Recover the amino acids of this structure.
C-alpha cells in the first residue's frame, strides 16, 4: 500500500519523502484535491515497471503479427478490381523487347 500525501505537504517534506522511498522501500502517492497526481517510486521500481511495460508491448506486437500472418495471402477477384476502381493489371513479362 502506498503512502498518500497532499501536494502542498509533499513540497514541504520532499527530502523526507525521498528518504522514505529510497531507504524505506515505500511508494508515495502525491494527491491534489484527494485525487492521485504523481507517485514517487525508487529507481529500481521504475526500472522493473519499464521492463514489464516493454515485455507487454513486445508480446502485443507479436500477437498482432501472428494474427495477421495467420490470414494468409489474398488476391482480389476480377469483379473486385472494377468495383474498387482499379483499371491496371500486372500481366508479367510476356512481351519481348
Amino acid at each position: 500500500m502506498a503512502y498518500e500525501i497532499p501536494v502542498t505537504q509533499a513540497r514541504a517534506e520532499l527530502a523526507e519523502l525521498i528518504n522514505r522511498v529510497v531507504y524505506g522501500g515505500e511508494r508515495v502517492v502525491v494527491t491534489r484535491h484527494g485525487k492521485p497526481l504523481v507517485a514517487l517510486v525508487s529507481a529500481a521500481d521504475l526500472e522493473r515497471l519499464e521492463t514489464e511495460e516493454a515485455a507487454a508491448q513486445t508480446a502485443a506486437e507479436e500477437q498482432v503479427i501472428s494474427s495477421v500472418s495467420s490470414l494468409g495471402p489474398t488476391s482480389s477477384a476480377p469483379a473486385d478490381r472494377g468495383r474498387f476502381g482499379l483499371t491496371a493489371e500486372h500481366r508479367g513479362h510476356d512481351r519481348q523487347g
Remarks:
- The chain has a mean pLDDT of 83.
